[in-house]
């Protein structure tokens, strides 16, 4: 490997399968010695870039750029144009995502220059990121919480990343926070009883009820995949940059979630008439398992994932993947049913704390739902933008 820092930076496009594989694995190479990072899983990430497997590429354009100094890969970036989101928000944005680079601002500049030029050539007037094809992909650059273990569904990056962005003229566009929520036991109970009281109250007042499942087959056959993701579409519709999920995308994401799902940690809230109005989805943390698997499922990485999912006697961390309530029911206590359902399970299974999904820092109703639990904001992240 040639590590001569005097070599010119060369940008190449990842077109072949081997090039795309190298694009994905750069993240693992850069972070393999970092105890807090959870690198991209190779196989699912390759599927994300495959038009035959990712329906988002029906309405998105994609280019993958790699930066080299000599024969050493030193960075990567994905440039994306989501035509559906641009139309919805009346924007001309090119997104950048899957961005990684060594601590050399010239490398960062070369990568961003490539994405910027690609966007200009297609009529875009702003570049923004890190974002994926949709909100179900990884988004937001970490700006605080570098000493906290990342999650499977979030980005980890070194502290120099946002420093480079600011030096290159990028400014903050949107911000998110993530919380460590202590499982209510052993002195961390806080005001958890309020969730149980509110849950009983809304059952009586509005007829809300929980729908629980006997097996994963019942989830599919009952059409609950689409019902649950319809809640995501409705509850997230007006949030930053949201791109509506269509039926094909719902099926792809459902296949991903069902693979790891423990049905006890899927809570679906319905009205008395059976309309799905809210949901919460949690899985046991796979962060350490992905690290042990070296961010590959095959040939042997699957064992570490399976061990974490089904054979760990004392799981420590529960990841909250999705929590959503339809807007018209958000002030009626529907989310209390979710908490009242999950808390006893988490206590019984021995979890110590839960990691929330990232929430927009200006989404006050979403922030307020944690107020009766012992929790703290331990990570912050944001997107950056720049006019082209």
Strand fraction equals 25-35%
Helix share bin? 25-40%
CATH homologous superfamily classification of the largest domain: Gcn5-related N-acetyltransferase (GNAT)
Q: How many runs of DSSP E, i.e. beta strands?
A: 14
Largest sheet: 14 strands, mixed
Write a structural description.
This protein starts with 8 loop residues before the first strand and ends with a strand. Strands 1, 2, 3, 4, 5, 6, 7, 8, 9, 10, 11, 12, 13 and 14 form a 14-stranded mixed sheet that branches. Helix 6 (193-206) packs across helix 12 (334-349). The protein has 388 residues and is an alpha+beta fold. It has two domains: 9-176, Gcn5-related N-acetyltransferase (GNAT) (Aminopeptidase, 3-Layer(aba) Sandwich), CATH 3.40.630; 181-381, 3-Layer(aba) Sandwich (Aminopeptidase). The protein has helices spanning 17-31, 42-48, 83-89, 105-121, 160-167, 193-206, 216-221, 224-236, 247-260, 287-292, 301-311, 334-349, 364-368, and strands at 9-13, 60-69, 72-82, 93-101, 126-129, 141-144, 171-182, 209-211, 266-270, 276-284, 317-325, 353-355, 359-360, 375-387.
Write the layout of secondary structure elements.
Elements: E1 9-13, H1 17-31, H2 42-48, E2 60-69, E3 72-82, H3 83-89, E4 93-101, H4 105-121, E5 126-129, E6 141-144, H5 160-167, E7 171-182, H6 193-206, E8 209-211, H7 216-221, H8 224-236, H9 247-260, E9 266-270, E10 276-284, H10 287-292, H11 301-311, E11 317-325, H12 334-349, E12 353-355, E13 359-360, H13 364-368, E14 375-387
Parallel strand pairs: 4-5, 11-12
Antiparallel strand pairs: 1-2, 2-3, 3-4, 5-14, 6-14, 7-12, 7-13, 7-14, 8-9, 9-10, 10-11
Helix pairs in contact: 6-12
């Amino acid at each position: 490997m040639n590590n001569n820092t005097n070599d010119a930076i060369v940008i190449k496009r990842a077109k072949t399968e081997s090039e795309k594989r190298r694009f994905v694995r750069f993240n693992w190479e850069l972070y393999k010695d970092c105890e807090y990072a959870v690198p991209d899983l190779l196989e699912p990430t390759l599927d994300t870039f495959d038009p035959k497997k990712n329906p988002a590429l029906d309405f998105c354009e994609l280019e993958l750029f790699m930066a080299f100094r000599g024969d050493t890969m030193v960075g990567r970036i994905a440039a994306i144009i989501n035509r559906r989101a641009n139309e919805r928000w009346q924007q001309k944005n090119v997104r950048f995502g899957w961005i990684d680079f060594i601590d050399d601002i010239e490398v960062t500049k070369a990568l961003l220059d490539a994405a910027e030029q690609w966007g200009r050539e297609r009529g875009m007037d702003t570049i923004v990121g890190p974002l994926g094809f949709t909100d179900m992909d990884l988004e937001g650059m970490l700006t605080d919480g570098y000493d906290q273990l990342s999650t499977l569904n979030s980005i980890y990056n070194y502290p120099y990343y946002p420093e480079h962005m600011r030096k290159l003229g990028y400014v903050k566009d949107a911000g998110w926070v993530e919380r460590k929520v202590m499982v209510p036991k052993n002195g961390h109970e806080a005001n958890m009883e309020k969730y149980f009281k509110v849950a009983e109250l809304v059952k009586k007042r509005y007829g809300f009820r929980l729908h629980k499942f006997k097996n994963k087959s019942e989830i599919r056959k009952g059409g609950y995949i689409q019902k649950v993701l319809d809640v995501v579409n409705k509850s997230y519709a007006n949030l930053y940059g949201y791109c509506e999920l269509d039926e094909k995308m719902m099926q792809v994401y459902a296949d991903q979630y069902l693979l790891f799902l423990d049905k006890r940690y899927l809570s679906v809230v319905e009205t008395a008439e059976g309309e799905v109005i809210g949901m919460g989805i949690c899985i046991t943390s796979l962060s350490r398992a992905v690290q042990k698997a070296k961010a590959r499922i095959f040939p042997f990485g699957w064992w570490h994932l399976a061990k974490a999912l089904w054979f760990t006697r004392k799981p420590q961390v529960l990841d909250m993947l999705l929590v959503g309530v339809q807007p018209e029911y958000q002030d009626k206590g529907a989310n209390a049913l979710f908490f009242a359902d999950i808390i006893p399970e988490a206590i019984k299974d021995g979890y110590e704390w839960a990691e929330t999904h990232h929430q927009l820092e200006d989404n006050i109703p979403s922030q307020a739902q944690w107020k009766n639990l012992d929790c703290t904001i331990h990570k912050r992240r944001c997107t950056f933008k720049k006019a082209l």
